[in-house]
Amino acid sequence: MEHSYRYRAYPTEGVADELEHQVNIHRQLYNHVRWDYTNSPVDAKPSEFDQNNKLPEWKQKWPVFAETYSKAAQATVARFHRNLSNLRKQKENGHTVGRLKRQAPTDYRSVTYNQSGFDLDEKRGQDGFAYVRFSKVGWVKIRYSRPIPAGSSIKELSFAR
Question: For the Transposase putative helix-turn-helix domain, which residue ranges apply (predicted)?
Answer without folding.
Answer: 1-32
